């Protein structure tokens, strides 16, 4: 009996010793083996404008544990319509580039967007009031502005200087018309027919609204301003024949290729124009000529944050902080021409001695910017204005519909 008990104890002791040796050896080896890295956080961003590659690359270097998936759209309208569909299907991205033109109020009404105050951390930057106002609906901000642009008039310098004997005066639309007519029918001088025409970029409702914008004016007076801008449009297309109808999709290329003497476009097109003209001819830019407007109406780019799980939401917050950092704001200005949204960055830019005269001129217009508050039916108004302008360009007798329902 005692022998059996001793044998049992001996066996148990061997088992314990073996377990101890295994733990010391195998356990030590396990500590030396590389542990599997945590799965990366994913972040889905939908964008429509250019220049995101460098921004995403810089973000990836700073946050290597976040896997950023960018989906690019050919236009803001396509992104906006697909964004609403994705929200309905429960498949929305975490971040979406949104424009001040339309869609802010409708996005807020879906309940899928988060107020910007919930995303920006304490000590968040101060943005240009006109940029912030573009995303403020029912006392809350529904996107974080990261840049913007203003409507400007680009023009070829040499033909107008040669014909007028000086730099052209382009402060009003009457002066624009007189300058273009001079190039269209030069006195005893051979000038390209294209010099006497102007072209307007495809964001037509923005330019129309800018020609008549008064920040605090609504109702009948605002409608009358819009009607006056429509009559100017009709005159440029038909009476003066200074603007070819329905050529807006190729407006920038027509100017770059010398087929138009003037071009109404956005200030963020300046880097593209400079690159493609490349010294082929001299050009300059002026503030959008005065018609009935009392302020400049900016076009603002922002990031809307859609509700998600805590991990993706934290990744979205990191990206918003990255794009609104001073370094990123300066990079957007230098590479894609977007006016920075941060007031402190703008103050530093204005002090740069090497800033070009064109860029300095654009910055000088910032005090005249006014914010346009979003409305729920902005998209419908935008499309209605596009149709109205198209009909006016096609038919000089086209009656103006209710101007209060236009953008």
Give a short summary of the structure.
By secondary structure, this protein is of the alpha/beta class.
Write the layout of secondary structure elements.
Elements: H1 2-32, E1 41-47, H2 52-62, E2 66-72, H3 76-88, E3 95-99, H4 104-109, H5 129-133, E4 136-137, E5 140-141, E6 144-149, E7 151-156, H6 158-164, H7 173-184, E8 198-200, H8 204-211, H9 219-239, H10 251-256, E9 262-266, H11 270-277, E10 283-287, E11 299-305, H12 310-323, H13 326-336, E12 339-340, H14 343-350, H15 357-364, H16 378-394
Parallel strand pairs: 1-2, 1-3, 8-9
Antiparallel strand pairs: 3-11, 4-5, 6-11, 6-12, 7-9, 7-10
Helix pairs in contact: 6-7
């Amino acid at each position: 009996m005692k022998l059996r008990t001793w044998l049992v104890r001996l066996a148990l002791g061997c088992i314990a010793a073996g377990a101890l040796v295994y733990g010391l050896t195998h356990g030590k080896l396990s500590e030396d083996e590389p542990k599997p890295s945590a799965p990366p956080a994913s972040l889905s961003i939908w964008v429509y404008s250019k220049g995101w590659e460098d921004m995403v690359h810089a973000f990836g270097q700073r946050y290597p544990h976040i896997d950023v998936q960018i989906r690019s759209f050919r236009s803001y309208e396509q992104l906006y319509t697909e964004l609403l569909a994705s929200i309905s299907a429960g498949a929305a991205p975490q971040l979406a580039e949104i424009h001040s033109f339309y869609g802010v109020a409708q996005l807020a009404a879906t309940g899928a967007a988060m107020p910007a105050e919930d995303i920006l951390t304490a000590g968040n930057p101060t943005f240009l009031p006109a940029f912030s106002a573009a995303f403020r609906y029912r006392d809350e901000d529904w996107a974080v502005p990261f840049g913007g642009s203003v409507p400007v008039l680009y023009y070829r310098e040499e033909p107008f200087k040669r014909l007028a004997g000086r730099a052209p005066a382009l402060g009003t639309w009457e002066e624009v018309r007189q300058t273009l007519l001079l190039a269209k029918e030069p006195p005893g001088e051979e000038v390209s027919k294209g010099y006497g025409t102007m072209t307007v970029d495809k964001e037509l409702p923005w330019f129309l609204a800018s020609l008549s914008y008064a920040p605090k004016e609504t109702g009948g007076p605002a409608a009358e301003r819009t009607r006056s801008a429509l009559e100017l449009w009709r005159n440029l297309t038909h009476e003066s024949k200074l603007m070819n109808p329905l050529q807006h999709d190729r407006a920038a290329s027509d100017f770059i290729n010398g087929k138009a003497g003037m071009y109404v476009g956005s200030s963020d097109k300046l880097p593209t124009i400079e690159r493609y003209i490349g010294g082929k001819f001299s050009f300059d830019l002026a503030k959008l000529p005065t018609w009935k407007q009392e302020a400049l109406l900016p076009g603002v780019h922002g990031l809307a944050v859609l509700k998600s799980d805590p991990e993706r939401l934290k990744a979205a917050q990191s990206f918003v902080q990255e794009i609104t950092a001073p370094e990123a704001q300066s990079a957007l200005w230098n590479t894609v021409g977007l006016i920075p949204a941060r007031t402190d960055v703008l103050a530093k830019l204005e002090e740069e001695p090497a800033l070009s005269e064109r860029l300095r001129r654009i910055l000088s217009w910032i005090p005249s910017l006014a914010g346009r508050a979003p409305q729920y039916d902005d998209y419908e108004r935008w499309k209605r204005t596009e149709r109205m302008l198209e009909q006016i360009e096609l038919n000089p007798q086209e009656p103006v519909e209710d101007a209060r329902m236009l953008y």
